[in-house]
Known about the structure:
379 residues; alpha/beta; Quinone Oxidoreductase, Chain A, domain 1; Rossmann fold; nine-stranded mixed beta sheet; six-stranded parallel beta sheet; 9 helices
Amino acid sequence: MTDSPAITRLLTPKADLGAALIETIPAPAAAPGSIRLRLDRFALTTNNITYAAFGEAMRYWDFFPTGRPDHGHMPVWGFAEVEASDVDGIAPGERFYGYFPIATRIVMQPGRVTERGFYDQAEHRLPLVSAYNQYTRCTADPVWSPALENAQMLIRPLFITSFVLADYLADNGWFGAARLVISSASAKTAYGAAFCLAGLADRPELIGLTSRANRGFTEALGLYDRVVTYDELDGIAADRPTTYVDFSGDDGLRARVHGHFGPGLVHDCLVGSAANTAPLDRTLAAGAALPGPAPVMFFAPVQIRKRNADWGGAEFTRRFNLDQTRFMTAATTGGDPWIRIEEARGLGAAARIIRALHDGSADPRAGHVVLPAAGSEPV
């Protein structure tokens, strides 16, 4: 493989997850058995802020080392094209979907190459969760189409969590709850879970918690039985067993939920961190000090492994693809879609989107897609 051109990358200061450092560095030396990919486009959502917030505890920072101890690579989902290859079965010009750093290019060491795709088997990635190391060859992906790439990379990484979370709650009998209270209810992963839950028979009542600014949008989704703003929390009757499904990670809100529902709170499920970028261990420790159930971190790969064993991989994929197609259609079509896809160009634009997502000022309807190579100027 020939030497690669320079790489422009966006790094996240671990002390300020809404900030960004954009720099251009020499490409790593080309090694036998490696490929070079050019990142063509990627999605940015609050899910990426969660990756950063949980970067140490869940080892998300470890996937793409930066060489800077105080800065990490915020992972994103996107599409990349092979620029050069020294690997049999992977040709220049092929397109792959997967988990990438925010950078114009990346060098990988493929292994387990099949018609479906490959796994990056760089030594530092071998101990990490294998689902994030898998790259799908677009021509072998039954749900891929060029026209739907933006929708796919926005929705698929979020909706896999939504789908598996809904299954996890049902699989555990709702933890004995007759009500689910879902925070950050306007977030795409949260209402994706509500979408999966809404049509289930004998499900608990679904209450969406959101800000006053996002109340109208959240009600218009039509997925929650009730939408309640954060300042109205005390108006929810504490009259039945309740499971808290937390996409916000807000310590103050968690304390209010525990205090209000008291012994009626039967389970506290921590899914995301839209409103809290403190380290995960600090959030879990603060929650454990509260009366009632300690928060339990939901990790989708664990439930995926369980269902692959229960159903088989093919059946899991069939069920997921069916619901994903239904959700993608509901979310992106019609005169007033839930997700309005917005393309931006360059890593400078990516930095501005990250700041808005981190600060909670981003429009919940916006589905942000970044084309990194164009206008990758420092900010």
